[in-house]
Amino acid sequence: MDKIHKSLLHQCSGFDWDKGNINKNWLKHKVSPAECEQIFFNHPLVIQDDKIHSKTEKRFYALGKTDLKRTLFIAFAVRNSLIRVISARDMSRKEREVFNNE
Question: What is the pLDDT of residue 4?
Fold first, then answer.
C-alpha cells in the first residue's frame, strides 16, 4: 500500500455502519460487516482511488483477505474519519491476479 493510502487509513478511527449499509452486502454477496472490517487489518492490503465512482465524494477500493483467507473487493469512502463500506464482494479472477502480484 502506498504512503498516501496508508496515511488515509491511519486517520480513520473506525467504521460507519447504519441501517443503510449494515446488511446490504450480506444480502447481495454473503459478506458480513465483520469480514469487511477484517481486510483492513490483514496483509497484504491493496488500496486504489476509484476515479470512476468519485463523482460526489472521493471513493476507494480495497483488495484484501479476511481472517479465514476469503479474498474480498471492497468499495468504500471515508466520512468523518470513519470507513464507510459501500459495496463488498468476492474478488474477480482479474482482481485476484492483481492482489497476488502485490
Answer: 87
